[in-house]
Each structure stands twice: as C-alpha cells, then as structure tokens.
Amino acid sequence: MAREREEDYAGPLRRIAIAILALLLAVTFLVWRIDSPRVERFRAAFIDRFVPTFDWAMVPVTKVLNMVGGFQSYARIYEQNQELRRELQQMKSWKEAAVQLEQQNAKLLAQNQVRLDPKLTSVSGVVLADSGSPFRQSVLLNVGARDGIVDGWATMDGLGLVGRISGVGNSTSRVILLTDTSSRIPVTIQPSGQKAILTGDNSAFPPVDFLEHPEQVRPGDRVISSGDGGVFPAGLLVGQVMQGQDRRLRVRLAADYERLDFLRVLRSHPAEQLHDAGPLIPPPEPPLVSEPVEEGGNG
Prior knowledge:
CATH superfamily of the domain at 121-267: Rod shape-determining protein MreC, domain 1
Number of strands: 12
Number of helices: 3
Strand content: 15-25%
CATH class of the domain at 121-267: Mainly Beta
Shape: rod-shaped
Distance between the termini: 204 Å
Oligomer: single chain
Radius of gyration: 49 Å
Helix content: 25-40%
C-alpha cells in the first residue's frame, strides 16, 4: 500500500517539476530577448554577479576543448608525417634509380676509354641474365647472329677481359666467363714476358699454369692476353698476378664480375696466314761468273 501511495505522488511531482523548469526557461528566454533598458541593466547585473563565480565550472569544459584541439592537431601532424614518409620513400626510389644510372653511365664511359687495337671494332650488349651455376660460369647477352656475333669472339666490360662467346642464337648469345672450368686462354705476364695459361676453376681468382720461370713473376705483375693460337686478340687487359692462400699464382681479374651490366663483343678476325715466304724475302741472286776464254794459236 505504501509503495502504491509513493508512486501516486511521484508522478504528479515530476510533472510539476517539469512544468516549473519549462516556465523558468521560458521566462529566461523572454528576459534575454526583451529589448528594454531596464531588462538590459538587469542582464548586465546578473552576469556581473553570477558568471565570474562559475569559472571553476568552466575549467573542465576548457580542458576538454583544449584536448579536442590537441587531438585534431595530432591528427594533422600524423597525416603530414605519413605524407612525408611517402615522399621520402619516393625520393629513396629516385635516388636508387639515379645511382644505378650513374653506375651505368660510368661503365659506359669506362668502356669508351678502353684503348684497343684501332682495327678492332665492337658490339655493345646488355647482360640479360646470369645463367651461371656452381658448375658453369656464364651470362647471356641481348646480341646474337642478327648483330653479326660469331662464336669465339672476346668480350670485355669497361675494365678488362670477361670471357668469350660460346653459343650464338638469333638475338642472344652466351658468354663463358674466364672463371669457368672450361676456360683456357693464353696470357702474357708483364714485365717479365712470361707466357702462361689462365685456367678457370669456378673461383674468383683463376690460377696461372704452365709458367716456364715462375720465379720471375711477382704479385702485382700485369696480365694481358698473348694472342697465341688466335683465341683472343693480343694486348687485352686480364688482371694482376696475386698469390692465393694455396701458394699458387693466381690472377685478380680486372673486370668487375659483380656488376656485369654491359659487355663489348670484340670483332676479331683471324690473321692472314702466310704459307709462302718467297714474295717477302726473295732469294739472293747468284754471283756473276765470267766464262773462261780459251786461248789457242795456229802453228
């Protein structure tokens, strides 16, 4: 019964409170909207009397507004940071492309500065892929029979001899590197003039074999192609002599095998074979011998 009475009083009280609140709001609205000098003085007096005392109540609101502004500023900074990251990544890619172009340009300039026999011409090709393996050291070029490439021609980068053509297709060709186990080229070691064979063994520093006087060879001596056997033109730079960990004489190759981007294929034609030395060195003329005069007399 008590609960029913409380519920009977609660409903009318809520309605009365809502009506009083609505009335106060309406009066406040009307007071604030009335355009009258007296009401204006009343509003000014009310603001001067009560508003300064509500500073403590405005502190949380101010803090919340400052936090909202801080979060908005943080969001803008985050977006700017992300944009700067994207621009930095793009600049890194541009830098990498510029470095690669600079390296390619340097290699092409180095190739143009290589001094070769004026009779030797060349065809430049791009290395398509490294088709080598632990048992085969070779690369593929984008030049072939349509460019006049012939099997056996020498190839160089901007620094030194790289290998020889071994297999020619219509638009591609294979280059067997000097480090391949099937590579055997005759070389000359300067300044001693020793002749030897550079033998590939699938290592970065191929050994030198068949030296007649190894004691005349020193580390740092220059190694060039000898031209013997017509395998390669003479005078092509191969590298420098060094002593390996196995105490064998090896060659530090001049070519940069880690960055084979462009190769020059040298058009080398076989030397003319001379089988008759007669037209060059004529035999001496026989000496003139006077015939003896027969003396005779009559009687």
